[in-house]
Every structure is written in C-alpha cells, then in structure tokens.
Amino acid sequence: MSKVKIFLEEKDMPRAWYNIQADMPNLPRPAMNPDTKEPVGPGDLAPIFPMALIMQEVTTERWIEIPDEVMEIYKLWRPSPLIRARRLEKALDTPAKIYYKHEGVSPAGSHKLNTAVPQVYYNKIEGMKRLTTETGAGQWGIALSQACNFFGLECIVYMVKISFQQKPYRRTMMEAFGARMYASPSDNTDTGRQILREDPDNMGSLGMAISEAVEDAIGRDDTHYALGSVLNHVLLHQTVIGLEAKKQLEMVEEYPDVVIACCGGGSNFGGIAFPFAYDKIKKESKVRLVAVEPSACPTLTRGHHGYDFGDVAGFTPLLCMYSLGKDFMPPGIHAGGLRYHGASPLVSQLVKDGIAEAQSYGQTAVFDSGVLFARCEGIIPAPESSHAIHGAVKEALAAKEAGEARTILFNLSGHGLLDLPSYEFYLNQKLVDQPLSEESLKQALAGLPQI
Amino acid sequence: MSKVKIFLEEKDMPRAWYNIQADMPNLPRPAMNPDTKEPVGPGDLAPIFPMALIMQEVTTERWIEIPDEVMEIYKLWRPSPLIRARRLEKALDTPAKIYYKHEGVSPAGSHKLNTAVPQVYYNKIEGMKRLTTETGAGQWGIALSQACNFFGLECIVYMVKISFQQKPYRRTMMEAFGARMYASPSDNTDTGRQILREDPDNMGSLGMAISEAVEDAIGRDDTHYALGSVLNHVLLHQTVIGLEAKKQLEMVEEYPDVVIACCGGGSNFGGIAFPFAYDKIKKESKVRLVAVEPSACPTLTRGHHGYDFGDVAGFTPLLCMYSLGKDFMPPGIHAGGLRYHGASPLVSQLVKDGIAEAQSYGQTAVFDSGVLFARCEGIIPAPESSHAIHGAVKEALAAKEAGEARTILFNLSGHGLLDLPSYEFYLNQKLVDQPLSEESLKQALAGLPQI
Questions:
Q1: Phi and psi dihedrals of A156, rounded to 5?
Q2: Containing domain of residue A401, as a range?
C-alpha cells in the first residue's frame, strides 16, 4: 500500500529562516517616509517594532537563525506534514502527483502562528509587556493571542466590529487564550472615540482597527504593535513552510514542477515559494511559482506596481508593491484574509521580475474545488486556502490534458472549521462572484498616491 | 532540545484490531431480547447491521484483521501523533510525564471516524446503498457523513432538533460531506410524524432520533443503521488508538502507570485502554485504567450493573451494563457526548471486575483543566476530552505530592473548535456543576427494567 503522509523528524527541522533578499536579482525599492520622501530608517519604526525585527526587515544575510525558544514552541505542531492527495488525484483522473503542505495543523489553525511566535519572542526579549494588533476575520488575532499566551505577554486585539459580532467562535478562541478584545471602533483610543462621536453605529474596518492598534502601541513604553503579513520579516518567518516541504519532497525523491499558494498580503505564498525561488534564481530549476488571488481583489494580476500606503488611514510608510489603491474596498467575499489592496513588496518584485506569476479566480469556482478537496481528503479548507486548491486542480487538469505526470505542490494555509457559515452559503447556492470591473479598477487605481 | 511529538510510520500501523473478548476473565452476559428474554441471535440484528459487524459483536478471536480499504482511509490521518505535554507538566510543576494521544487530528475532529470507516465499509460490501444514524451534539454524525462520502454511500442523519438549530457549524459540516439531514422529530418517519402531530414544537431527544433512524433503516432493503458507541464492534475498531499508543511509548522506552480517557458510551475509553488491559489481565503490568465521567451523569461511578435498554424508546435489545436507567435525563452539560444513561457492556464488566476504575468530576473543574491545557499545549480540547485532561491533571498532582515520576497517558478524543460557544459560557463564568443528587439517583434507578 502507498504512503500518504511524509513526516519530517523534529531533529530535521530547519534551524534558520531563508531570507530571499540575499538572492533577489532586484530588491524592492525601500519603504519611504510619506512626509520627507526619504527611505524609512530604523528609528522611524522603533516606536512600534523591536530592533531585531526591524533589522530582519532590511538585512541581506541569507540565513537567520531561529532562536531556541521559538524552536521549542514550533515543535508543538512543526514540522507540519506533507501529504500526497491521492484521493484528489484519483477524483481528477490526472497523471499529476499532488502534494500539499498542511499548515492547518497549527494550534491557531493557520500558518499565521509561524510568525506570531518569533514576533512575540523578539518583543519579549526587548522588554515589552503588551502587544497590540488588529484583526478582521480573526486568523491573525488568534495566532498572536496564542503566541502572547505562550510567552506571557498581554495581547490586545482590535477586532473589526462587524466581525466581532458575526464571528463569535473566533472571538471566543482569542479570549480562551487570554486576549483582551475590543470591538473596533472602540472607546479605548482617541481614534475610536472620535469615530464613535461622529457615528455611534459605525461597524468598523481593518483600516480603523490598525489605527487604533498603532495608537495604543505608540502611547505606551511597554507596548509594541504586530503585523501578520506584507512585511519582509513576516515572510522571512514563513519560509519554514517551504524549507520543510523541500526536505520532505527530497525524502520521496520529488521536486515540484509548480508551487502554488493563495495570496492576500503574501505571507503564505512567500513562505512556501521563496525556498524554491532560490533554486530558480540560481538557474537550478525552472519551477513555476503561482500566487492565486480572488478575482474580486486581483492585486497582483491587475494592480499597479509602485509606492502606496500599507493601510487605509495612510499611517504607514509608503511601500513599493502591487496595489489597487489603499481606498479600494473589496466586495465581501468569504476569503476575508485575501481582501487586501496591496501585496508584499518582496512578492510584488518577484512577480514584476517574472520569477513568480499570479492567477485570479472567482469564489464559486474556488469553493467548488474546496468542497471537492474536502470530500476527497477529509479536510475542510479555509476559503483562502481553497484558492490554492483551485490553482492546483487547474494545474492537475492541465497535466492530464498534456498527458504529463507533473508534480504539484500547494500550501494548505489553514483549515476552515471556523468558516463553516461560508460553506453554508455555498451549499445553499447563495455565493456569487464579484470580479473587479474595468470601471471600478480605474477608480481604484486613481486613488494611488501621486509620487 | 527535547522531542515533543512521537510519530509512528504508516508502515508500522496496526494491521488488526484487538478484541478484548478473547481475554476477559468474565464476559458480559449476552444481549437479551426483551420479549423472549432469550439471548439475541444474529438474525435479530440482521435487519439493521451487516453480518460482518454482527459477528465482530460476538467473536472471541483475539485479532480481527483491518481490511486494506479501511487502512487506505485510516492513512488520511492515522497513525495519530502521541505528544508529550511538556508545557503542561511544567505548568503543574510535576515530576510526572504526561503523554496524550491526539485523536482530534482526524478529519472528523474526533476518534469517531475510527469506527465510522469500517462500519461503512462492511455495509458497502454487503450491498447497502444508504446508512441512517442519529446525532446529538454532532460528532458522530460528522464521522459517519465523512465515512459514507469516502465509500460513496448515502448518509441520512436524524439530528436532535434543538442541536440542529443551536449547532449550525456541525450541521453544515455534515452537509459539506453530502449528508442528508433531518431535524428530529421529522416528518420523514411514522415515529416523527406521530410526535409532531401531538406536539408540533417538540425539540427532540436522542431517543426519538434513534427511533427515527432505526425505522428508516428497517423500512428499506438497501439501508442499514449505524451506532457510534456502546457496542462491542465499535470498541473493537477503536483499539487502533491504544495499539498505536503502545508502540509509540515503546519507541521512547516508556510504559504508562495510568491510562485515562473520558467515558460516555465508552468507545474512546475502550479504544485506548483495552490493549493495556490485556497486559493487566495477563499479569504483565499493574497499569491503572481510569474512565472519567461527568458528575452530572455518573454511570460507572454511581449506576447499577445489570440489564437495561440501550435507548430511551426501548427498541434495542437489553444490554448488561452499568446504567442510570434509560429514562434518566442528564442535565444540559456542555460535554454532550457524555450524556448517556448507560455504558458499554465491555467497559462495565472491566469496571465490575476491578480491571478498570471510574472517576467523576463537575464541569467547572473540567473546563478549568481544559483551558489550562489549551494555554499550555495550544489545542482547544472538546469538553468531553477535557474530562480526561482533568483526570490526568489530578494524577500529575498526585505524583507531585508523592514525589514520583509517574508516566501518564491520556486520550485527547477530539478538538473543541466547534464547541467554542461552551468556552464562552465558561469564560463568562456562566457554567455551573449539576452533580446528580441522591434523590434523583434513586428516582433514575427506579426506572430500570425488572428482570
């Protein structure tokens, strides 16, 4: 009988993260202070991030050692299994081999914990007692709550009010790990109080929640702020995914023809793809690296590459990336984690340079593939991860068409057990695609800063 | 650094289930036809179960080979990891070593899939096209839905109406795997229609749902019924848990001083404990086998050992077991899977003969330990499984008191991601203990059949 799961031993876990800034043919242009138009320096970021993370943001060292304290926590769920999706292959009647890396086994249910743990660790050794963050759908908030709990820091989460009310399971999970929760806009910050004075019924947005979290952090010496995607140090931490996957594929004497992940801010795509991008940059492989995004929020496929703000309020430095414009409001698709106007500068640069590529799909096709995957493999995928699944299904069918036994690797970034209401929508045939129209795209891009 | 997870290779998976009926000093008295007072024969059960399962119910062969088709599905999640709870040990400051078997990694989120898969398989090879069952909280319904989906059988689930309305996540999960769901009482059976005529607002009970599922199965030649606990063949299938755990402990040169599991119908307790009970019966070990139940439904600790019906309606054969009486209505504690008036005849006999022992605890203490475990190990446990955790915590503290480095093994029968509303009750300090009073116990036992 055939082997299904490929487990790495704990002793063979990667001991360092891979920093793709060491090897990129072109680095992204640096983050810029919007007022001075000068590159942002470490001092600009020190009020909200610890120096260790600020240095990881800019270093070109190839390998960054993973601290022992982080390794010990990683071992609660890492190395994550690599699984051969044999039943999915059979259902598609494809000669392709489909492997997936299962990041849903983390206690947080997603890959987000890979970066939450080191972020909290570096803040702790710099003496921080509290960390603030924002969360929309809740995956990042859960990860940071757990990481803070593991290291004994207080975690303050500003959760977009509409999600706070509509996603009680995720809220309770954060509370179970001891997080202090605020429905944003809240009366805990000037920003929140101001908004509530003008509009007491405001249901919040990610942009407002970021503003509240940053204000809370800046106001106190014992407090920093943490971000769950987009930035270089976040993607750095996520490379454990791809490093493990590479070793696991070697164990079964495989190398992928294509590596696929969904892409919102870009951290799970970067995490699995960067270690393979290294091979491609070094001309040792022709592996295709495919970022899959929703057609409702097609940042990499249809956005503009240049400077834009990372947040809606315009508090952050300007980042050089693909963007639809910070004021772009994506429709309320069920993959909440992919509703972001920008994309990681590192991922954007790789796409711009032709090292990675991007595809976009509508959510009904994505859910079709997600449910097919669930019925074959048993795992309910997160709606975000179902974008990667759909990309893999497309590739497997193309391999069948071509009659080629291609090897496909995709990242299952998280499970969907707390997203079951979205599946109810799908099963009741209430899902609709809302692809970005040419008109809306034009409007969205008009909001880009003039630089 | 220390090893946390002990993985077994797929090639070392047990190839046979262990049948404790081969080795028990005393077998339970046989199931009895309530009308004739004669032992039940295979023919009595044939309308609802396939012959392979009926034979597994009564055989005294020690090893029952696991079919290849079942092994292939088991490999989607088995062997499940054995994990050393180092952070929990540290939090308790105990010299004890605490290991847990993580059955929550199954696609169904609990151990229930271990028996759902072979039950569907044996029904399929006997030509069945449909399987019916009942579900209360929903764990068993999810497992049978998934197993039917894997083998292409139709699954019909009668879900207690109050749960159908209050647990939409579990309902949606069953639907995602293609199950046909009925809120019970339904208008799909005579039983249901009769109840609804008398009381259109009836919110259902497990007893009514069983009656509907059995009626549906008896009425059609292509349909059987499936049960998720209590019966011998169910516990047989669950012994994969204990067989794997034994091998995994051997890999780290350990043997448990005590094995702990929660106990409702008894299948997860039997699953982990029976392979160790073998050693004890053969005088090769003095391992303690501890079944933990809620003080609100203390079947093994305070029930009566003798014949009783397995269901509320009195449709089933009489089983020789510990029982609180089929009419006993346990309070609405959050561990819905432990709200059962009886206990497996095999487990009951082992407790009666002093080979296993039982403990009961109130749910506030159980949730205290469940949340402590979550904060240490990262995993939100099912409220049922938290009973085992609480038992393990008690043992670890006793080891500390005694200054002994005892080895504790417990079964984490499932995760609690779909039980988060219960955690919200706990965190808001709304949970109360409802231990069974002497008066209620007297009343409950008065309902036992006079045989």
A1: -115, 120
A2: 5-10+67-109+235-445
Q: List CB contacts (< 8 A) between A87 and chain B.
A: 76, 150
Q: A84 to chain B: nearest residue by CA?
A: B76
Tell me which of B157 and A208 has the higher pLDDT. Answer: B157
A85 and A152, same domain (yes or no): no
- Position A451 confidence tier, pLDDT thresholds 50, 70, 90: confident
Given this model, what pLDDT does residue A205 score?
A: 84
Other beta carbons within 10 Å of B317: 16
A165 vs B181, residue with greater confidence: B181
In a domain, A32, yes or no: yes
If asked whether residues B188 and B261 sit together in one domain, one would say no
Chain mean position to CA B197:
34
B169 and A169 in contact by Cβ < 8 A?
yes
Q: How far apart are CA B98 and CA A139, in angstroms?
A: 29
Instruction: Indicate which of A173, A377, A430 best probes the interface with B, i.e. most B CBs within 10 Å of its own CB.
Output: A173
Query: ipTM of this complex > 0.85?
Result: yes
The DSSP output letter for B27 is P
Indicate the range of B32-36, B266-270, B353-357 predicted with least confidence.
B32-36
Say which DSSP state A60 is in: -
- Hey, which bits of A147-204 come out as E strands? 154-160, 180-184
A&B contacts, CB < 8 Å: 118
* Residue listed under structure tokens 């709200």: B339
What is the distance in angstroms between the Cα of B75 and the nearest Cα belonging to chain A?
6
Helices (H), A199-231: 206-218
User: Measured between beta carbons, which residues in chain B are less than 8 angstroms from residue A377?
Assistant: 76, 107
Note the pTM of the prediction, 2 decimals. Answer: 0.96
Of the listed ranges B190-199, B276-285, B313-322, the least confidently predicted one is: B313-322
Answer yes or no: are the C-beta atoms of B200 and B185 closer than 8 Å: no
Chain B residues with beta carbon closer than 8 angstroms to that of A102? none
d(CA B392, CA B290): 10
The region that residue B40 occupies, defined by phi over 0 for left and psi between -120 and 50 for alpha, beta otherwise, is beta
Q: A374 and B177: CB-CB below 8 Å? A: yes
Of A413-417, B151-155, B222-226, B310-314, the poorest mean pLDDT is in: B310-314
Euclidean distance between CA atoms B260 and B257, whole angstroms: 10
Share of chain B above pLDDT 90, in %: 88
> How far B99 CA sits from the closest chain A CA (Å)?
13
Predicted confidence band at A204 (pLDDT cuts at 50, 70, 90)?
A: confident
pLDDT confidence tier of residue B2, bands split at 50, 70 and 90: low
Orientation of helix A206-218 relative to helix A190-198, angle to 10° = 140
Same-domain check for residues B262 and B279: yes
Distance, in Å, from the CA atom of A193 to the CA atom of A186, rounded to the nearest integer, reads 6
The domain tally of chain A equals 2
φ and ψ at residue B75, rounded to 5 degrees: -70, -10
> Percent of chain A scored above 90 by pLDDT?
87
- Closest-CA residue of A relative to B8 is A7
Determine the pLDDT at residue B1: 47
Chain A contact set for B418 (CB, 8 A): 417
A81: CATH: 3.40.50.1100
Q: Is the pLDDT of residue A2 over 70?
A: no
